[in-house]
Task: structure prediction
Amino acid sequence: MSRHTFPSAEVVAAVGAQWRSLADDAQRRAPTLARELDRWVAKVLGQRPEAAFTTLESYPLVHLPVWAAPDLTPAVLGLLVRSTISGYLYVRLVDNAFDADTDGSELRVLPAASYLHTEFQLPYQRLYPYDHPFWDTFTSAWTRAAEATLADRLLGDPDVDRFELVAARKTTSAIIPVAAALYAGGEPGRLPAWARFVDAFGRWHQLENDFLGWRKDQRHGNPNLVLGEALRRGVDPDGWFLDEGFEWGAELLSRYAAEAAAQAGSLGSPELDSYLETRLAAHRARLDSLRRGISEQVRLGTLLATLGRPDDP
Amino acid sequence: MQQRRTDYSSEYHRMVVTGLVDHDWAARLQRAATGESSERVGEVLAEHGFASTPELEDALARLDWSAIRAVAQSFDPDYALPEALIC
Result:
């Protein structure tokens, strides 16, 4: 039983307030942009898009700062949440257009990227002057994430080594709001340990994304570790995934989850520990359900191949 | 009854894999097999070249279709889950 509620009421409230504030500001400054952005966001995140930031299955971007610095003031939390919402939408907009996961809606609204990037960066400029060491973390993490995204796309389906070196680092920019929170709380010395957790958790999160999304990536021609592994083995991914690939991926997910949990254990954040316990339990339950389904699907395949096969002429 | 060989390299197996990841076909087969629709199991099976027998229909009705559908929904590219943040 988890001792800490997820999502945190404080974070949910901050997300709601900043979501409304961002929408109001956009409407006032750029009504066309606000309308188009609103449509696109509803398309990719659903009718209650702000709720996507605090669901259990989502990357816990908006919770990381309060887990790293529990005494964060509401004003600073608001700034970090505002930045994170904008930064996520910016990355998602560019990634979707870049990944070909689009029917054209991203290209239609692409000029909104400059607005989102400004709203991503501006809160940090309110917190830290240009020569503050926070900006070193900001620049290196933001650049590393862009480098990883570009290299991942250009290099094609990865093997495990390249996945760990490149693809898993696409989420490395999640350290930015954590760094801002740690500097605000006067504890920048904890940054390396948090960076190790963000890398380990990002590896697991990205693999879960590849594991559940390999058919979508196959359709769009996007790089994917499951497809890379099938390619390396010289097998058809459809059949291999049911026969072996599912368990291969589940085992790797389990290893990455253990590494993320081990890194979290050194951070002294009971809220993070509790979240991970809940998140990973839900993940394992989902895998168990899929395992049962695959077993039944294989049974169905056998039934059709034996009893449903028309007699040879 | 004659025991037929299971041939996993055959077109039949491939149809099952691709057919079930396409959750529409799985859903129709489920509804037909469990009597939730008026469509006959044989008609749905015939679309992919399968023959229907009473033994097969009985076995199909006893499958855990919700588990099969969960697999189809999880991996079908057309079945999006927009409520979670992905990176």
In short: The two ends of chain B are 53 Å apart (CA to CA). Chain B touches chain A through 46 residues (CB under 8 Å). Residues 11-21 of chain B form the longest helix (11 residues).
